[in-house]
Every structure is written in structure tokens, then in C-alpha cells.
Amino acid sequence: MRARKKKHGAERIAACSALLIEDMAALKADPQRFFTEQRPLHLEIGCGKGAFACGMAAAHHDINLIAMERVADVAVLALEKATRAADTRPDNLRFLIGNAENLTEWLPAHSVDCIYLNFSDPWHKARHAKRRLTYRDFLAKYREILKKGGVLRFKTDNVNLFDFSLEEFAACGLRVENVTRDLHTSPFAAGNVMTEYEKNFSEKGFPIHAATVYFD
């Protein structure tokens, strides 16, 4: 679904610029310069309205988190959510507006400890498989920016995307653990931070599929 154009979107984004990474050359040189302390670097690709990013940053003071969103009219909502929480959130959350296809141009090799893919677009049609964020070409990009032993944490409500993703992980020789077809009733639910989408769909009874993928 296409995001509705936000009124005064550019001005609203500018008002939150303290949390927005815009200097890609500086990011490529050293992502940690955007944070007050050096901590393990985590990356959420497709942060939506920002519930997961804000929740993770508040719950895990020991990480630095970059929340990435392709659509500016969605990213503005995440930026505003994080800005409103400025009195309670730790200073370990920054946002990036851009496309995952450019990850290796913007982030240094082996600089990221963990990547989150939460409810990515399933791109239902077979001819669009290469656009799925778990397609092997994207997995190769993740391997380049992840540290040795880095982790990809994947959640989706779409069973076809989940099955496709498991096949891609296997084809790329990745180790997959904590696989579940119903995250919220599984032993892996402890500490789970929900996205807006996840909360909505789980309340309607849809099971959430999840897996942890290791780039050894």
C-alpha cells in the first residue's frame, strides 16, 4: 500500500533533523560518530512508524540502532515518535531515509552486529522475488556489512515469504535457529518488541513467523 503524502512532510522531517543521518560520506567513514558512545551497531531495515525502533532503543541501552525507512512519508512518523520520546529514550537511536539496495554504499564493511527485518514487503508476485529483502542478493549485502558472526533477526506474518526466506537462507549456506511459526506462543517470545503492524495483526489472531539467521 502506498503511503499517503504527509502535509508539510519536508518541514516535519527537518524539525527532527537531530535524529536523522543525512551525511552518507560520514556514515560510510564511521557510523559510530552519530552516537554519543561506541556500542554494538544494530540496523532495522524498514522501520515503518518507529514503534520497534523506539522500543528497542529504550529497552537496550547497550546498543546503537539505526532505523532505516525507504518512504519519507512513513519515516517522518517514526522520527516524530522518537522526538516525542526524547525525555525517556537513550541517545542511541538514529534514522536513515533510503533504500536497502544502497546499504553497502552507505555502511562500512563488517560494521554492523545485528540486522532486523520486521514485516518486510512480501512482493507477492513471483516476478518480483528479487525485490524481497531476504532474496540472496540482499543477503550478500548483509554479509558484507555484518561483522563475522553477525545476526539477522527476521519476523513476518506472511507464510509464503517465510518459506521463501528459509529456502534462500539455506541456499546461501546460512545457519538458521529459533525458527517458529507462532512467535508469541513460542519460547522465543521473551523480550520481543512488537512493531505497530505486528501488534495489530497478532490481536486479530494472525500467527507471527520468526527466525534467527547467523552469518558465520
List keywords for this structure.
Rossmann fold, 8 helices, 7-stranded mixed β-sheet, 216 residues
Count of separate DSSP helical elements: 8
Mean pLDDT: 94
* Uncertain parts: none
CATH fold topology: Rossmann fold
How many domains? The number is: 1
CATH homologous superfamily (4th level) name: Vaccinia Virus protein VP39
How do the SSEs run, as a string of H and E? HHEHEHEHEHEHEHE
Number of strands: 7
Structural class of the helix and strand makeup? alpha/beta
Helix content: 25-40%
Q: Radius of gyration from the CA trace?
A: 17 Å
What do these coordinates show?
With 216 residues, this protein is an alpha/beta fold. The chain has a single domain, classed as Vaccinia Virus protein VP39 (Rossmann fold), CATH 3.40.50. It has helices spanning 9-15, 24-29, 51-59, 72-84, 103-106, 136-145, 159-171, 196-203, and strands at 41-45, 64-69, 93-97, 112-118, 146-156, 175-180, 209-215. It has a seven-stranded mixed β-sheet, sandwiched between helices. Helix 6 links the parallel strand 4 and strand 5 (146-156). It is globular and about 40 Å long.
Task: Give me the secondary-structure topology.
Elements: H1 9-15, H2 24-29, E1 41-45, H3 51-59, E2 64-69, H4 72-84, E3 93-97, H5 103-106, E4 112-118, H6 136-145, E5 146-156, H7 159-171, E6 175-180, H8 196-203, E7 209-215
Parallel strand pairs: 1-2, 1-4, 2-3, 4-5
Antiparallel strand pairs: 5-7, 6-7
Helix pairs in contact: 1-4
